[in-house]
């Protein structure tokens, strides 16, 4: 499934909704989009992954780089997600807290086995 990106700006933040599959083939266009938005906007950023169906390491790199870019300007990245397979990637890599991943009520991911 192709990646779809939508942007909504408020005075406080930019919300980027990402839908489809985020993998090595689609990570560069998303990285370019997010980098441009960080450069144009003086706002915090929320990335909405509730319609994302697949996420791999290439996608995680985009989020880490975006978070670092925002932090260098005193801004914050938050990620919202509900798809268990996508949330599990954040849990397995230990990036859930570092990237401010939030889960809407009732969408808690399964715990990672020890």
**Helix content range:** 25-40%
Uncertain spans, ≥5 residues at pLDDT below 50?
Answer: 109-114
Order of helices and strands: EEHEHEHE
Strand order, main sheet: write it out: 1-2-3-4-5
Radius of gyration: 13 Å
Our estimate of the beta-strand percent is 25-35%
Structure description:
- With 114 residues, the chain is α/β, with parallel strands linked by helices.
- 35% of the residues lie in helices and 30% in strands.
- The chain is built from 3 helices and 5 strands; from the N terminus they run ββαβαβαβ.
- The chain has helices at residues 27-40, 57-72, 84-93, and strands at residues 4-9, 13-22, 44-55, 77-80, 101-102.
- The chain has a 5-stranded mixed sheet.
- Helix 1 (27-40) packs parallel to helix 2 (57-72).
- The N and C termini lie far apart (32 Å).
- Residues 109-114 have low confidence and may be disordered.
